[in-house]
Amino acid sequence: MARPIYILCAQGTSEDRTSGSITIFGVIEKLRISKTAHPAMMPLLQMRVVAAWAREENDIGRDFEWSVEFRTPTGAEVSVGSGKFTFESPNCRINANIVGQMPIEGTGTLMVTAKIRSVGKGEWSSQEYPIIVDELTQEEFDQMVNCSSPMKVMPSRQLKEM
Fold it and tell me: For the whole model, what pTM was predicted?
């Protein structure tokens, strides 16, 4: 069975089309939520889950399935992506793009799990990535909601003289 290499959650990635190398930016280690937020203001996630696996000799030519799941701090399990693949090289990278509101309640750890197995067979091989879920203070939440900018608008004439 394929061996896990790594798993990361980030705001985005960029892949070099020639080499296949990946650049990962905005690694997500913590989410901040508010208990006082209106239900319409659930955390909006834009996250890329990147999980890499190394094939074993007996994996060549076999079809695999993958799944990415979240386990919230309250224990709720949410499937956020799945699919199928075949190892075309010694390593395979799964990229799951997650965009949407996530009903995260409570603080603690949001566990992101990426797993693979031969299609329809046996036990999953998995890797986990913990994300700390922390609560915003009321003051921090109010600042985010009100977003009054301290910037001044200067007339164009003043800008030219500077």
Answer: 0.80
Give the integer Cα–Cα distance in Å for 33 and 105: 8
How far is it, in rounded angstroms, from Cα 129 to Cα 76? 16
Give residue 32's pLDDT band: very low, low, confident or very high (50, 70, 90): confident
Confidence category of residue 145, pLDDT binned at 50, 70, 90: low
How many other C-beta atoms lie within 10 A of the C-beta of residue 13? 17
Residues 6+ apart with CB under 8 A from 101: 42, 43, 44, 45
Cβ–Cβ under 8 Å, residues 114 and 66: yes
- Return d(Cα 50, Cα 90) in angstroms, integer: 17
What's the DSSP call for residue 123?
P
